[in-house]
Specification:
disordered N terminus; alpha+beta; Nuclear Transport Factor 2, Chain: A; 6 helices; Glucose Permease (Domain IIA); 3 domains; 16% helix; 23 strands
Length: 448
């Protein structure tokens, strides 16, 4: 899907260009409902988000990163800015910046009371360290790249280092996107200036059980989306909720409304209040493409002879996370012949799924798993020509095509007592989508 995108500054601007595909802001910026425990000002944070360099292409999470390492000297102290890289740790980074073992120990003691560095630190997290001329730590600010609204502040108070976890308020903005398909959804969203995080929400969280984005899309199909984006100091941090999505295609037409019934959990429903959730997800990882399809007569690239391919090979890079497609129990977690590192899950109604050629397994035999729970990482172990995920579904001992597992299934309906409220909520979301559509059409008529 190649697309043309125009960013409009006002939803009700009658001068809007009637381009075929658009993304527009639709609501005044709002903040998180939960109040902050501590709001950190720019003065308290010497590395404000707004001071970081801009980038043309955003990652799925987090603001732009500061330089890998920088040191600034002052008359009575010096400032170190550093970023954790792959395989790094806070300890190794501090040692690299010549902090003494004693100061690292004191800093770690204060840090450990508010932040588990062993399990929570990640590559691309960054920090600012202020050390006086005698080598004593005066301040340490650690910012998780994926959650920069929760920095950790360690500072000297009454002669000892004291730590606390800060909370900054994220700004929420709403946008409407209208995209027409040329080849595939991933390219369309990217060409629109948005990230793969939005694509993943559509293909996994929302339509992941009801639309096969490998076979269903056709050129000219349209998708409209009302979605949220989270900002910190005017910088995009991550995508928020998708409130409504409308896929109008030649093969499939599907609407999805996010709704939370009173006292229940939020989910996506069609226009009649039927859930879009199914027993199985169609994809066991973030969908980017398929290397080899289910085929009982496939010519094997390694064995050089016809060998049935009783699953689907998903294109993926080494290390990408793999998740379960349905709830179940782990029946195998380890090596198994040509599969290499394999996870097998037993599901209700006689189903089993297999996830093969993994580089890492993060579950154990006998463990219960939820739908979309991480179980390992993509690899190329076993009989494999390169990194990918081999995925199988077996029902009552017979392999079936994974892409057809949900065919004919219907979602569970909302309780009747919630339907009236749902319809009101549905109509409000539709009004927002249609209001933009009408204004864009009026603008086009005015220009012509």
């Amino acid at each position: 899907m190649a697309v043309r995108i125009e960013l409009l500054h006002q939803l009700d601007a009658t001068t809007a260009t009637a381009s075929k595909s658009t993304i527009v802001p639709v609501a005044t910026a709002s903040t998180e409902v939960e109040p902050p425990t501590t709001v950190v000002s720019n003065a308290e944070l010497p590395i404000p988000i707004s001071a970081l360099p801009a980038r043309d292409v955003w990652d799925n999470f987090g603001p732009p990163l500061p330089p890998p390492m920088a040191i600034a000297a002052e008359p009575d102290h010096y400032v170190v800015l550093d970023t954790l890289h792959q395989g790094d740790s806070i300890y190794l980074s501090l040692k690299r910046n010549d902090l003494s073992e004693r100061q690292i120990s004191l800093l770690n003691l204060a840090l450990g009371k508010v932040f588990n560095a062993n399990s929570k630190s990640r590559p691309n997290d960054y920090y600012q360290l202020i050390v006086d001329t005698s080598g004593v730590v005066r301040q340490f600010i650690y910012t998780p790249h994926r959650t920069p609204e929760h920095p950790v502040l360690i500072e000297q108070i009454d002669g000892r280092l004291v730590g606390k976890r800060e909370k900054r308020v994220l700004e929420t903005r709403q946008y409407i996107a209208e995209v027409y398909i040329e080849d595939n959804l991933t390219n369309a969203i990217r060409d629109a200036g948005e990230g793969d995080g939005l694509t993943d929400r559509l293909t996994e969280n929302i339509f992941g059980s009801v639309i096969d984005f490998r076979t269903h899309p056709r050129k000219g199909d349209r998708i409209r989306v009302l979605f949220e984006k989270k900002y910190l100091e005017g910088r995009f941090i991550r995508y928020g909720s998708v409130l409504v999505a409308d896929y109008a295609g030649q093969i499939v037409q599907q609407m999805a409304f996010h709704y939370t019934p009173p006292g229940g959990n939020g989910g996506y429903y069609d226009g009649e209040g039927k859930s879009l959730a199914r027993m199985f997800l169609l994809y066991p990882l973030q969908f980017r493409g398929i290397n080899s399809h289910f085929n009982r007569r496939r010519f094997h690239p390694v064995l050089k002879r016809p060998v049935p391919h009783l699953g689907t090979d998903y294109a993926a890079s080494r290390g990408e996370p793999v998740h379960t497609t349905a709830i179940g129990t782990i029946t195998h977690a380890g090596r198994k012949g040509s599969y290499g590192l394999l996870v097998e899950v037993e599901h209700p109604k006689g189903y089993r799924t297999r996830y093969a050629h993994l580089s890492k397994i993060t579950v154990k035999k006998g463990q219960r798993v939820a739908q979309r729970q991480s179980i390992g990482r993509v690899g190329t172990t076993g009989r494999s020509t390169g990194p990918h995920l081999h995925y199988e579904i077996i029902k009552n001992g017979r392999h079936i095509n994974p892409t057809s597992v949900n065919r004919g299934e219907r979602g569970k309906s909302l309780d009747k007592k919630h339907l009236a409220q749902f319809r009101t909520h549905r109509d409000s979301l539709l009004d927002q989508l249609n209001a933009y559509q009408q204004r864009a059409a009026l603008a086009a008529q005015t220009e012509n």
